[in-house]
Design a protein that fits this description.
The chain has 330 residues and is mostly helical. The chain has a domain at 109-329: MetI-like fold. It has 11 helices and no strands. The chain has helices at 2-104, 114-123, 125-159, 161-174, 179-190, 194-217, 222-230, 235-246, 248-272, 278-287, 291-329. α9 packs antiparallel against α11. It is flat and about 120 Å long. Mean pLDDT is 82; it is low at 1-7.
Length: 330
């Protein structure tokens, strides 16, 4: 009896411990299952959120691309709508010209018809291409040199007000000198090579770029300039960060003017003294009473001028778009 009474409490204590272990194990398993369920739910929510965000980004990108295509299509339609009236008028004038020459029997050396001009230009296409290439090379060199010089002088005059006060009136006064009068002087000073013709084109391209750039540099936002002064920005920092970027539209306006003048000035330079180029070709054709070839040269000069202006306008759109995207990202 005593032995069995002694074993009873021990057995009860063991049974209690076993029950505690079972309860702990059950609680742990329940906790693990709850944690696994919570993790699974969280993972599902995170995956759903990521999928939703990816879908939103893809939708936004698709909508943005669609809007960009729609804007591009709208711009193209607007350009075509704006271009067809002058093209229609030009076509009508050419038809009237052709009809008038044929009706009144005007001699080809006096006023050739558009058809005669096209046929003679096609026969002389190799010579026209060679002379057009020479004129284009002279134009591009003079345009680049004159634009760079105008840009540099505008920056210098803007940064040095005293120099601007003395030089700018003389710069404006110099534009009253006829370019055709400068040509013989340049030939006397520098001979009949490339240099006098190049200098003449540079002088023509220089002024519009310089004046437009000066106006743009002086038109920066006064509030932003006061802010830069307030935070301690120096003169060069204000020029590079504010004044130069804000002058970009004015600079491109000057470049477009210079581009429109550059081909004509190259032709005038070739008239003065040259053995190649469209100016030389037209002068030679006029002396031989080949009026149709003179008209062909004029048409090529107009086409080169339009192409150069269009190239500058395209560069302007790219530069201003890059500037706006950079400002938006900042």
């Amino acid at each position: 009896m005593a032995g069995s009474g002694h074993r009873g409490p021990d057995r009860n204590e063991a049974d209690g411990r076993e029950a505690v272990r079972r309860d702990a194990a059950a609680d742990g398993a329940a906790s693990e299952r709850a944690g696994a369920a919570a993790d699974g739910a969280a993972s599902e929510r995170a995956g759903a959120a990521a999928d939703g965000a990816a879908s939103e980004r893809a939708g936004a990108a698709a909508n943005g691309a669609k809007s960009a295509r729609a804007r591009a299509g709208g711009r193209t339609r607007a350009r075509l709508k704006a271009a067809w009236p002058p093209l229609a008028v030009l076509a009508a004038l050419l038809l009237l010209w052709e009809a008038a020459v044929r009706l009144w029997g005007v001699e080809a050396w006096l006023m050739p018809s558009p058809g005669r001009i096209l046929s003679d230009a096609w026969e002389a296409r190799e010579r026209l291409a060679g002379h057009a290439g020479a004129t284009l090379s002279l134009t591009l060199l003079g345009f680049a040199g004159g634009s760079a010089a105008g840009f540099a002088l505008a920056a210098l005059l803007h940064l040095l007000p005293l120099v601007r006060a003395g030089v700018y009136p003389l710069l404006v006064l110099s534009q009253n000198v006829p370019i055709i009068a400068l040509g013989p002087l340049l030939v006397i000073w520098f001979g009949f090579g490339l240099l006098p013709k190049l200098l003449l084109v540079m002088l023509v391209c220089f002024f519009p770029v310089c004046v437009a750039m000066l106006g743009g540099l002086r038109g920066a936002d006064p509030a932003l300039e006061r802010y830069l002064r307030m935070i301690g920005a120096g003169r060069w920092r204000r020029f590079a960060s504010l004044e130069l970027p804000s002058s970009a539209p004015h600079l491109f306006s000057g470049l477009k003017l210079a581009a429109s003048y550059s081909v004509t000035s190259a032709v005038v330079a070739e008239w003065i003294g040259s053995d190649r180029g469209l100016g030389y070709f037209m002068l030679l054709s006029s002396k031989g009473f080949k009026t149709s070839l003179v008209f062909a040269g004029v048409a090529i000069v107009v086409a080169l001028s339009l192409l150069l202006v269009a190239a500058v306008a395209g560069a302007e759109r790219l530069a201003l778009r890059w500037r706006s995207e950079r400002g938006g990202a900042a």
